[in-house]
Automatic annotation (TrEMBL):
GO terms for cellular component: extracellular space. This is VMO1 protein. It holds the Pfam family VOMI. PANTHER family: VITELLINE MEMBRANE OUTER LAYER PROTEIN 1 HOMOLOG (PTHR18841:SF2), VITELLINE MEMBRANE OUTER LAYER PROTEIN I-RELATED (PTHR18841). It comes from Pygoscelis papua (Gentoo penguin).
Amino acid sequence: SVIAVFGGGPWGDWAWLEVCPKCSYASGINFKVEAPQGVMEDDTALSGIRLCCSRSRGLHSLLLPHPLASAPTISSPPSRWGRWSEVAHLVGFALRVKAPQRGLLSNEVATTSARFACSDGHVLEGPGSTWGQWGGWSARCPRAVCGIETRQDPARGLKRDDTALNDLNELFCC
């Protein structure tokens, strides 16, 4: 099955679907975030999402800390902006999006943060910015997440308005 939300940024192209290896699931997530750059600079905010995949050891393994350093990962296309956060565990999501400004001097940003629902009821919020409004929650995966599809705006070059990650369309349940 597929879970989705609507209302991400309008820029960029949809990347290829990335799926965890067969018989594995997304056991963790981390975010790539660029800090605010200041007045008259170009901001991107949330610029990447990466899922860490693990072999299934039962649903309880989603709740337990385990080493993910050597785990295979799937992610949005790489962006040059920001730094990766620590890893957390998930089953559903919501996005914070800054609506298009459409002004001559506006700084378009699109997706600024994400929240992920954990199987134990906790909500994990990425270290994104406070710009924009939170959209609704996706449905929850009944067991685990094993895939991700994102919309990424490519780098536009010097003095252009970059938006990086625009939308997380779907997490795929397995």
